[in-house]
Amino acid sequence: MNNVKEHIIFTNKRGAEVRFDAVSIEGLGGVGSDVQSQKSPYQDGLTYIDSMLEPRYIDVEFIIRGERYREVRSKRGSITSALNPKLGLGTIVYESDRIRRELLAIPESVPYFPDKENRGKRWQRGTVTFIAPNPYWRSPNETTKPLVAYEGGFTLPFTLPFTLGRSGSKTVLYNDGDVPAPMRIEIHGPTTNPQIFNRTTGEHIRINRTVAEGEVMHINTESGRQRITVTDENGNETNAFGYLDSESSILSQFNLELGENEIEHVADAGNRHAEVIVRWDDLYVGV
Q: What is the pTM of this model?
């Protein structure tokens, strides 16, 4: 670590930050995997089904320094307060050269400050372990990609969130991460029975509902956080998950595959100015 310019910053739920120019950081890359398989009678070996990553554990060893022990003690108290597990999930940001990644994590316990040879009048050694329930590092900014729409009306270049445009538009989105990326989709009315296709994967979703002018439909395809809601002009939100067409893909499977994805928006009817906005984060298995 002494020859590598890298560090992590933990920000808790209340906005308090702790920066670790650490003696040691473990768990930035390696994470356990649960291999799913099945075995039939008389079968040699196993049939592979899938691999599911375990939560990520990040072990940090650090040193607090000060001009006198009173300063060291004060810093130790501030770090302990910021790394309080009772505050819930916070954000870890990893920075090294031009690479910046982040994930949600929580301290496994209050930081440990060993005694005897691990402390002095001007320093204190400490350790803490963070648990990231979702093991994937993500890009801190939503990905920026140009739009290619066959009905025109757009100016390039531009940044996310970008607009797919009126009914019958398509674009190519590029997932630069290591795994398929969930999407957060906004459909701005007026439009009727909107459909979103991923022509690359063959998946699609259809919502059997009219989105009136001034209304916005929100779709989240992230596993464990799937939702379909509609917000009206006054900010009132209603659950619209029940309008998901029975022949639609499973919402958690409607993701951006690695590399290029051709996405198309189609609606049964609606104003030609209806918009579909797509957001996503590139996800990485390590840094």
A: 0.77
